Amino acid sequence: MASPSRRFPPWVRKRLPPEGAMRPVRELLRELGLHTVCQSAHCPNACECFARGTATFLILGSVCSRSCAFCAVTRGLPAPPDPDEPRRVAEAAARLGLSHVVVTSVTRDDLPDGGSGHFAATIAAIRAACTAAVEVLTPDFQGSEPCIRRVLEARPDVFNHNVETVPRLYPRVRPQAAYERSIEVLRLAAEAGEGAATKSGLMVGLGESHDEVLAVMRDLRDAGCQALTVGQYLRPSPEHLPVERFVPPEEFDTYQHEAEALGFAAVAAGPFVRSSYHADALAAGLCLAERS
């Protein structure tokens, strides 16, 4: 009997763009020696985004110090941060002509500052290279307030930290993370007064109930979170958690309406929605502050 995760319904199928359309972004990334979460996490939108001339940069290497059961990023002992990486990310953003740059990282629990200094350096390098808005999708920094503040003081336009799933499923999905800690990361970012809009994201299809998703949305709003993404979990390999259910499009529409009713300023919900998927369009609803 085939795995439920392999019986894709019609709404979880995508037409790939021509190979030639993706080549310029791939060649630039290769030339500059950069990683993207699009490739490392086997994002289903990677080809589409590359064909549109955009990508989500993955800094601090390509090896993660945690082992989340949903994520395809390589796990193990990461290498030391590359001090030239922020400059190369900025160069790539400028050469691609991006108006909205999304930067994320592997989790670096092995580093004293969790990689927060590298995030700040990357934001500064992008600011020096182009006028693009900067969105960061950070790990939880183990709840370290100094680390979170270090990133915020670099003044990203959007501070994103994903809760990923409902608290009941954390031991199975994110065994090295804590739901309450992630909520507090977002609360601190919202209250820090550095002007960054706050954003989070959820995967569905992992066994959560509708009421549990709504409860997470309320927790996020209580923490001051302004933007939300909700997307279908897709199993990156047989070694990862199976898909419990493919959520139909009309249920995503319901989540969209419920999130908007709770007061989120920007919401994207759909089978292929990911944290950085069309992040520029979602950010347009956040009235980002002008940067000097």
Give structural notes.
The chain has 292 residues and is α/β, with parallel strands linked by helices. 37% of the residues lie in helices and 15% in strands. The strands form 2 sheets. Strands 1-2-5-6-7-8-9-10 form an 8-stranded mixed β-sheet. Helix 1 (19-32) runs antiparallel to helix 4 (85-96) and helix 9 runs parallel beside helix 10. Mean pLDDT is 91; it is low at 1-5.
Summarize model confidence as the mean pLDDT: 91
> Which sequence of SSEs, written as H and E, runs from N to C?
HEHHEEEHEHEHEHHEHEHEH
Strand order of the largest sheet: 1-2-5-6-7-8-9-10
**Count the strands?**
10
The main β sheet shows up as: 8 strands, mixed
Q: Assess the beta-strand content as a share of residues.
A: 5-15%
Rg? 18 Å
Oligomeric description of these chains: single chain
Poorly predicted ranges:
1-5
Question: What does this entry show, briefly?
Answer:
With 292 residues, the chain is an alpha/beta fold. The chain is built from eleven helices and ten strands. The longest helix has 14 residues, at 19-32.
